[in-house]
């Protein structure tokens, strides 16, 4: 099975510059060892089980809240996709690029 979870974490009440806190969430994801990709809006993580991926998301949210206890409130947006197979983090993007090249 392959579980893809795209999520964003936004600390609330910490001012406009949230990059430092968001970086802590991304650090947790990267240190997890799971395939991942970060863009301007979301970080996407791929794993074999829901539990595996959601544990990383949970740890990322906790890291944002824990940084010097500066974020007493954290907003999370999450989108998930589960299906058989694996390696979809790169395969889905490659399929789009292939279709673009054909036109």
Automatic annotation (TrEMBL):
It comes from Planotetraspora phitsanulokensis. It holds the Pfam family Thiamine_BP. Residues 5-97 form the Thiamine-binding protein domain. SUPFAM superfamilies: MTH1187/YkoF-like. GO terms for cellular component: cytosol. Belongs to the UPF0045 family. Gene3D superfamilies: 3.30.70.930. This is UPF0045 protein. InterPro entries: MTH1187/YkoF-like, Thiamine_BP, UPF0045_domain. The lineage of its organism: Bacteria, Bacillati, Actinomycetota, Actinomycetes, Streptosporangiales.
């Amino acid at each position: 099975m392959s579980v893809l979870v795209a999520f964003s974490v936004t600390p609330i009440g910490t001012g406009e510059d949230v990059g430092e806190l968001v970086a802590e969430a991304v650090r947790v994801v990267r240190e997890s060892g799971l395939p991942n990709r970060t863009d301007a809006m979301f970080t996407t993580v791929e794993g074999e089980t829901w539990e595996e991926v959601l544990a990383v998301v949970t740890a990322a949210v906790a890291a944002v809240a824990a940084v010097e206890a500066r974020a007493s409130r954290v907003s999370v947006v999450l989108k998930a996709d589960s299906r058989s197979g694996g390696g979809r983090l790169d395969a889905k993007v490659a399929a789009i690029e292939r279709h673009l090249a054909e036109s």
